[in-house]
Amino acid sequence: MFKSSDDDPADTSSMIATASMLGPDASVLDVGCGGGRSSLPLGSRLRRVIGVDESPAMLEQFATAATARKIPFETVLGQWPDVAEQCQEVDVAVCHHVAYNVATIAPFVRALSSSARRGVVVELTNVHPQTSFNELWKRFWNLDRPVEPTAGLFVEVVRELGYEPDVVSTPRPARPGQLDRTEMVAFVRQRLCLNAERDPEIREYLDVRPLLSSDTTVTVSWRTWGLALVSEVGDDGSPDVAAGFEVVEHVTDL
Predict the structure, then answer these.
(1) At residue 113, does pLDDT exceed 80?
(2) pLDDT value of position 229
(3) Residue 251 — pLDDT band, cuts 50, 70, 90?
(4) What span, in angstroms and rounded, lies between the C-alpha atoms of 48 and 26?
(5) Is 52 helix (H, G, I), strand (E, B) or coil?
(6) Which DSSP string corresponds to 79-141?
(7) What stretch of H or E contains 50?
(8) What is the pLDDT of residue 98?
(9) CA–CA separation, 240 and 114 (whole Å)
(10) 38-42, 124-128, 200-204, 247-251: least confidently modelled range
(11) Rounded to whole angstroms, how far apart are CA atoms 33 and 61?
């Protein structure tokens, strides 16, 4: 769990893309805002920011951080795109590390695009965070886990919806809050539905193959003005490729 702070980076690829699309209104919609890490580092460049999150506690952190930075803000409690109509139009919509939690990605992307008069910036890891558990599932349960969705698949969805995304991949910044070895073993045990008797095996495995989260962040940004969405879509109203984006648990502790 992250909180926005004065140390948040304002020079990442995603922040640069967002700043480049700000118009005179200098307004941002932050979907899955958490503590504001995806938008508030823009600081004085923002005149208005709307934070959307399913968690009241996260919205409280967002409000505290925005107030500390003296950035005018609004908060909307709920799930995107269900609450899209409650949000005013903005210059740029941003959404960081949420896409892998979305069950039906095409309506999610359309709603982001419809809410932003200038553009959208989505940040995600190049592969799903749970991909690092695939070998463990195979080792302990002989289960083959999916390798998708990926950032590449997300880019395909955006293109099939009629947008022309810019894609930038960068090394992922070091993150605080890494678990120590005992906590990591307990975390893996719980994640794999094992009992404590398997702890020595888990520890032995982690000694040889440390459990690493993705070290690459992908920024996907696209302009929204003057564009027409594709009319050829699947029977359910979504591009066929979007069916590959299915619900997989997203763990941010790693």
Answers:
(1) yes
(2) 43
(3) very low
(4) 7
(5) strand
(6) -TTTTGGGS--EEEEEEES-GGG-SSHHHHHHHHHHHEEEEEEEEEESB-GGGGGHHHHHHHH
(7) strand 48-53
(8) 95
(9) 21
(10) 247-251
(11) 10
Length of the chain: 254
Which tokens belong to 94?
């941003």
Confirm if 243 and 118 have CB atoms less than 8 A apart: no
The answer to whether 106 and 237 have CB atoms below 8 angstroms apart is yes
- In angstroms, rounded to a whole number, what is the distance separating the alpha carbons of residues 139 and 142? 6
Query: The tokens 């605080």 sit on which residue?
Result: 176
Cis status, amide bond into 146, omega within 30 of 0: no
Selection from 167, 138, 137, 164 nearest residue 150 by Cα = 167
Mean pLDDT of 31-47: 94
- Written as six digits, the tokens of 238 are 């979504």
Alpha helices in 120-250 (DSSP H): 134-141, 151-160, 181-191, 199-208
Residue-wise pLDDT tens digits, 44-92: 899 999 999 999 999 999 999 999 999 999 999 999 999 999 999 999 9
Q: b/e per residue, 1-26, with b = 16+ CB within 10 A?
A: ebebeeebeeebbbbebbbebbeebb
Max mean pLDDT among 44-48, 138-142, 188-192, 242-246 falls in 44-48
DSSP annotation of 53: E
State the pTM of this model. Answer: 0.77
Provide the token pair at 222. 């696209």
